[in-house]
């Protein structure tokens, strides 16, 4: 038996860990399972290169709750540690074993899948335990070691009783953390953080229903058996090559990610890059309603298949946070503030890579099957329009595929639209006037009046469209949007107005005055020019700028 002092500069680091390190105490389990996974993958790697002459087999990680003993066990069948290694890796807090491992084998097989750093790792167990034991036996032929520490910098080290290779971590759960002795709580954590980790994780057993035997009577209960309960899928879709997957696999994975989500995604984007940073993932375009606020199923960020967060703000451009799916990258610095993240060079590159991939995917969908793209437009336009508003790079790309639907159900790109209307819809200063409606029913008579004059009327009804129109107007010369019921219509009459009114000018003027008296509100204008079309006897308009001001106040800033 030996005792020693953990080499830390602060006299007692543990209360600090407990208080300040993580606001989220629950992540201790993620850290310990990550270590168990690391240890197993390292052994896999060592056996594969012939360095470890042992059978790798089919190792699993097991989590056990001992409610009476107030203990939580995390058991792996990985490479284990020798006494020297415990002293080195566990006691020298600042020293990172993974780093040394990487250093030593950096030329070997690159994708051995070593888990990256989350911070203090193993020591996060002191957030929930007032005593921690490690019983470990290395794959090397050396006796097992038993390390134990009660939360002060002193530890004890003795020979351990362990026959099988691997490591068992025993947490003596503290009085204020007994929630972690509840099966439900542990299940919840495993579901949250470990659902896609690469080594099978066993937690208890579950009852499996077997098929009834042939000769069973009708009300005989089906036979059951207790089987090991594995909580994870070690080979999630995003770790595979796109060529290995079919459309149905992507849909299946979507359901796996969001079990409560019954609506199918519209399409997916498989992300896969290893230079200049490492990133894999699958993003899905969900069917989005006009409501920007409701979103509980969010993009999940993983690091080598370990769940990190579903708040990807700062990593993914804001407009893409409306998408769903996963991003997995060891190159995203964790445990740093969001403002730091946003300034980080690697993160910036990741963000623009994702933006580019999304734009490229949309562009290819548009080019390869325009009809299908048009059908989906209503469901995806919010993301695209929001992206055009907030990211200039995306704006440039999206100009090729962003669509402007008309009230008649045609879809034009901006270029096509321009071509289509330039002869007919310019004002006296050669400014292109794009007419649009935001509500086909309410603005029916205005739409009909405009159509009667041969104008194209767009149907633009997204909540942020007024911001986007503003942006288009400022980024393009000589362009103006005008809602069909806006006063702009007056300035637009380039084409000969062939209709002859049945009313005399005098009668018209009188009618107009009468109507204006009735309406009172001075911000509206009465126009009689469509008097003789079948649509409406007259129309009442509100200035475009006033209407847009109101709308932008409603949807808030942006743009
Ligand atoms: P990190 O995982 O970032 O290296 P940790 O504090 O989580 O930091 O772990 C420190 C070191 O302790 C690991 O690098 C590893 O060498 C060793 N270690 C921890 N858990 C295990 C385990 N279950 N099996 C083998 N070694 C382990
Ligand atoms: Mg670790």
TrEMBL record:
ATP binds at residues 31, 35, 76, 81, 96-97, 167, 338. The keyword Nucleotide-binding applies. Coiled coil: none annotated. It comes from the Bacteria. The keyword DNA-binding does not apply. Keywords: ATP-binding, Chaperone, Nucleotide-binding. It holds the Pfam family HATPase_c_3. NCBIfam families: PRK05218.1. This is Molecular chaperone HtpG. It comes from Ulvibacterium marinum.
């Amino acid at each position: 038996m030996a005792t020693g002092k953990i080499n830390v500069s602060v006299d007692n680091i543990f209360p600090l860990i407990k208080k300040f390190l993580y606001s989220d105490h629950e992540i201790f389990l993620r850290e310990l399972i990550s270590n168990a996974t690391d240890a197993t993958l390292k052994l896999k790697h060592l056996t594969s290169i012939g360095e470890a002459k042992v059978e790798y087999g089919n190792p699993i990680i097991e989590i056990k709750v001992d409610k009476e003993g107030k203990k939580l066990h995390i058991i792996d069948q990985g490479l284990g540690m020798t006494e020297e290694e415990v002293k080195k890796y566990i006691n020298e807090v600042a020293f990172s074993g993974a780093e040394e491992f990487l250093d030593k084998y950096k030329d070997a097989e690159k994708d051995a899948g070593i888990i990256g750093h989350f911070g203090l790792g193993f020591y996060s167990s002191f957030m929930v335990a007032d005593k921690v034991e490690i019983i470990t036996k290395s794959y090397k032929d050396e006796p097992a070691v038993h390390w134990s520490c009660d939360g002060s910098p002193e530890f004890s080290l003795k020979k351990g009783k362990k026959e099988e290779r691997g490591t068992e971590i025993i947490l003596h759960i503290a009085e204020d953390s007994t929630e972690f002795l509840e099966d439900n709580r542990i299940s919840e954590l495993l579901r949250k953080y470990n659902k896609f980790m690469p080594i099978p994780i066993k937690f208890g057993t579950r009852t499996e229903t077997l098929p009834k035997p042939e000769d069973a009577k009708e009300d005989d209960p089906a036979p059951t058996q207790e089987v090991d309960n594995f909580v994870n899928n070690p080979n999630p879709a995003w770790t595979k090559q796109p060529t290995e997957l079919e459309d149905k696999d992507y849909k299946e994975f979507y359901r796996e990610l969001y079990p409560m989500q019954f609506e199918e995604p519209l399409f997916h984007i498989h992300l896969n890059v290893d230079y200049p940073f490492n990133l894999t993932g699958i993003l899905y375009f969900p069917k989005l309603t006009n409501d920007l606020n409701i979103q509980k199923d969010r993009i999940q960020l993983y690091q080598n298949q370990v769940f990190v967060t579903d708040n990807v703000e700062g990593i993914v451009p804001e407009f893409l946070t409306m998408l769903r799916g996963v991003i997995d990258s060891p190159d995203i610095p964790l445990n740093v503030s969001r403002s730091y993240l946003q300034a980080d060079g690697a993160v910036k590159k990741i963000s623009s890579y994702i933006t580019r991939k999304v734009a490229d995917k949309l562009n290819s969908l548009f080019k390869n099957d325009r009809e299908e793209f048009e059908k989906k437009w209503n469901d995806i336009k919010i993301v695209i329009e929001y992206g055009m508003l907030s990211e200039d790079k995306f704006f440039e790309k999206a100009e090729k595929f962003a669509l402007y639907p008309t009230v008649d159900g045609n879809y034009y790109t901006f270029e096509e639209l321009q071509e289509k209307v330039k002869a007919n819809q310019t004002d006296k200063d050669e400014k292109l006037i794009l007419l649009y409606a935001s509500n086909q029913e309410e603005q029916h008579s205005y739409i009909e009046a405009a159509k009667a004059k041969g104008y194209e009327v767009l149907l633009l009804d997204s909540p942020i469209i007024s911001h986007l129109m503003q942006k288009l107007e400022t980024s393009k010369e000589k362009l103006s949007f005008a809602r069909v019921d806006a006063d702009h219509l007056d300035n637009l009459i380039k084409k000969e107005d062939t209709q002859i009114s049945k009313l005399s000018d005098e009668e018209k003027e009188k009618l107009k005055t009468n109507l204006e008296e009735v309406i009172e509100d001075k911000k509206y204008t009465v126009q009689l020019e469509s008097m003789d079309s079948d649509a409406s006897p007259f129309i009442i308009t509100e200035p475009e700028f006033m209407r847009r001001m109101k709308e932008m106040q409603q949807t808030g800033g942006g743009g």
